[in-house]
Structure formats: structure tokens, C-alpha cells
Amino acid sequence: MSSDILVVDNVTKRFGGLTANADISFSMKEGEIIGLIGPNGAGKSTLFNCISCFYNADGGRIVFKGQEITRKDPESICRMGIGRTFQIVRTFKDMNVLENIMIGAFLRNPKRKDAQARSEEVANVFRFTDKLYLKATSLTISEQKRLEVARVFATGPKVMLLDEMMAGLNIHEIKESVELVLRLREMGITLVLVEHVMEGIMPIANRIVVLDYGEKIAEGTPDEVVNNEKVIEAYFGKKYAKRRENKTRIQ
Amino acid sequence: MKKGLFIFILFMCALAAVPLFVGDPFVCHILIMIMMYATMSIGWNVIGGYAGQVSFGNAAFFGVGAYTTAILLVNFSVNPWLGMLAGCVLSVGLAVIVGYPCFRLRGHYFAIATIAVGEIMVVIFTNWDYVGAAVGIYMPILEESFTNFEFHSSKIPYYYIILCMLLFAIAVSYFIEKGRLGYYLRAIKDDPDGARSLGIDIQKYKMIAFSISAVLTSICGTFYGQYVLYIHPSSTMDLMMSIHLCIIALIGGIGKLFGPVIGAFVFIPLMELTRVYLGSEGQGIDMIIYSLLVIMIAIWRPQGLWALFSRGDK
Lengths: 251, 314
What we know:
Low-confidence stretches of chain B: none
Structural class of chain B: mainly alpha
Shape of chain A: globular
Number of strands of chain A: 10
Mean pLDDT of chain B: 88
Structural class of chain A: alpha/beta
Radius of gyration of chain B: 19 Å
Radius of gyration of chain A: 19 Å
Largest sheet of chain A: 6 strands, mixed
Strand content of chain A: 15-25%
Number of helices of chain B: 14
Strand content of chain B: under 5%
Strand order of the largest sheet of chain A: 6-7-8-3-9-10
Largest interface: A-B, 31 and 20 residues
Number of helices of chain A: 10
Oligomer: heterodimer
CATH superfamily of chain A: P-loop containing nucleotide triphosphate hydrolases
Strand order of the largest sheet of chain B: 1-2
Mean pLDDT of chain A: 90
CATH topology of chain A: Rossmann fold
Number of domains of chain A: 1
CATH class of chain A: Alpha Beta
Order of helices and strands of chain B: HHHHHEHHHHEHHHHH
Number of strands of chain B: 2
């Protein structure tokens, strides 16, 4: 499977007695959009942190473009071409929009002039052109999340890990983010999205990976996953799953 | 921005012209102290201001600069200017040795670790006979010349030397602020994890900032030794000095290019004048006044006095 850009192979992460990720494996091809879903506490963010090397996995391997990255550090991961955003927005509060993007752009453009030019291009892609000199904190949450994506995009990633970029947004804003994700894919970026907002992720994901209690319980196309019994059980409980099963049997 | 540059040039010209009109050695001395502290505080600002890593150990670099120059001069007759270079090299070495473990600490723990390092330096130098222990070192009196870095008849040459050092420090700080390093340091201050996620090796950039800070402080140490011609541990690496550097930047405006300069112009005269005029009435009045000042600034101008001047800027 040499065509896979990112391979997660039996990754395990423990915090003391708690196993946050147990033997999780999946792989993705270039240009795919993978949705990572699961109830709260399923281990999605932990897995994200393992892939972006904010945590080092206790077991298993993570391979990016044929190179093992399991024990590297976040800054080298970013340099290799994996960018991530955070669940809780982490824009640089004391900086304006342009400066925020420039921090990302400096990675491939060490000169200030080049970084600024690159950042203005990126700002254009992310529709920040008229907000360049606004403080990051004066943006709405949706804009701040978009700014975080823009900042990561400026580092020139091949794979982007977006952690709940649609959480807390209204329907209009979700539509915008969906468009943004599709645009990123058009630009050749492979995406992993952790998401709770199903109407956001389901229409665009090529495949969905479902976690529950630290284990992968399902993987497949969005259609396969929503009809998967284990998934329904994880989201709605055993009772509902059984009732639903009976209903379909009667029908 | 143009206006700011104009004011800066005007101010520097005025500063350069002062010795031509004012002959009073005390005024000259105070201005020298202001510029020396401004230079060091700019150095402090690189690590404490831009990078947000509050250091209470910067006086150690001052001490290393002063002692290196003094020992090389007294024991090996090495020219003080070369001694200054050697001091810088050793200070950077110290910054790397201290920074490597301490930068793994976050937030206040780094500040506490630097206090410990500063105090360890004082204890070592007070008990180390080779460097004069608690008695300190007297510089040999040499012929008055620029090459010897000694002037006995007037303070004015010292005045211009420290003015040049101050200009150097401002230039260094300016280029940091405008370049990638400055942006990265501000990112590290704002959100270290966010910075790492964007490919910034925060350990490396903190080390670079700390080393620059060390160099700017170390050259002042050399200057001080040659200016006073006598150094001892409590005059060169006292914890109070580190705290002063921090307070000067705080008063002027932390993380701002001219913050430390403004801070030094307010704080040092206050310190020197209260010491001279009120010092005999019992220790501590100067402390009371400056702590009042710090409290007032914390309440009304948390960004520092710099904010008074830059209201129109941003």
C-alpha cells in the first residue's frame, strides 16, 4: 500500500490506567477526506494528538509518505507537511489576522517580505482580505476557526487535521466550512476531520472512521457507517439499537 | 511611522549633544546609568518581553561580562575590548547551559529557575578566591585611551561609548521585531502549543532570544567594570539588578521596541535621585516610590508608558 499518504497502524495511547486509543488502524490516500467521529471521550482528539505528535503513541506506528513519524515532535511534523488545528481556537490573540497567517507562512518563506506576500495570497483564499489588520480576538468564532485553518494552510501542508472546525457554528457558517474543506481538497490537500456535526461531515467525507471508548468500531462510506449497528449503539444506546432492529425486522 | 523615526533621530541627537552643554558630572553619570540600564533592559525585553519568558537571572550575564573582562585584564593583560568579546562568548555559553533545561519549564517555573541560577552565581563568585571572592577585583589603572577602555579625567568618553551600545541594542531589537525571529517569539509568548503546531521549534528560538539577551547584558557588564574600575559580586550580579531590568521594561512597555528606553529614563533618575536625596533618611524610600509607580502603571497603563506615546499608532 505504497500509495497511502498516511497510515495509522495499531496505534495505542494510554494515560495511566485509561486506554484512550486501543490498536487503531486506518490509512488514507492522497486527496481523500476522512471523517473521524464518535461520542465524547471516544479518543478522537487523542488520536489527533498522536498523529500530530503532540503525544507520542505508546504502541503502533504512524507512517507519513513512507516515513515513520511515531516518535517525532510537532514542529518537525509540521515541517514534513502535516498541519493541524485545535478543538479550542488557538489564534494568536495579540496579533492581527495578517500576522497570524504570517507565523505559518514564515515556515517556507524565511524573509518577511515573502512571508507577507504569501500571507496576503492565503488571506485572499480564505476571504480575509478586508480584515487583514483586525485583531484575531475581534473576529467571530467561525472566523477565528477559519483563521486557524488559514494559518496552517500557509505552512504548505500535504495533510491537514481539522479538529471540530464546525462545532458551535450556525447553519450558514457550516455551509461555508464545507465549501472551504472542498476547496482545500481541490488544492490537493488530504484532510482528516474530527467532527460532531453530521450534516457537515457526511456529505463530503469519502470515508468515516468511528471511534468509541478508544476503539475503532466501524469504518466505511458515510452510508455504510450510519447503518452500522455498532455505531447506532454507540450513539443512541443498546435499547434504541434493539428497538430499531425489531422495527426493521417487522417491516 | 515616519513621524516616529523623526522623533527618534531628534531624541538621539539631543542625547548626543547633552555633554556639549552640560558639564555637571552627576548629570552625566545619571545619563550613563540610564543608557546602560536601557541597553540591558532592551536585552531583557528580547527574552522577557518578546518571548514572554520572564528572566530574573539576567544580572548573571552582567556579572559574567564584568568578571571575564576584569580577570583577563588583571591576570593576562588582555585588552578590555577583547575581554568584552570573551564575556559575550561566555555569557552565551551560560545562556545555553541554563536555557537548555530551564526552557522545558513553562510559565512561572522558568522565572523561578532563573532566580536560582542568579543566586548560585552570586554564591560562587563570593566564595571563589581566584576571582577575588567577596572583596572583588580592582582594575589596573592604565593610560587613558579608547583602546584601553579607561578614561580618568572625564566621563564624556564613557557617555559616548554607552550611547553607541544603546544604539546597537536598539538596532538589534529593531531587526528582531521586524524579522521572523520577532514574529516567532511573539507566537511563542502567545501560545506555545499553537506555535509548535505551525512548525516553530520553540526551544531553539527561546535559546536564540536568551543568547541575544545575554550578549546585550554582558557588554554592559564589561562597560560597568571599565567605568567604575571596581567590581564585586553584589554590585554586578545582584538579584535586585535583574528585577530592575524587568521593572524598567514593565514601566516603559513590555515587548515594545522603545519601552525599555522610556522605562529607563523614568526609573533610573527616580532611583538615583531618591537614593541621593532621600537615601540618608533611611533605606527604602526609593523602593516605596518606585513600587507606587509600578502599581499605578499596572492599574492605569498596563501596556506601559509607551502606550501614552503610541495611541495614534495602532
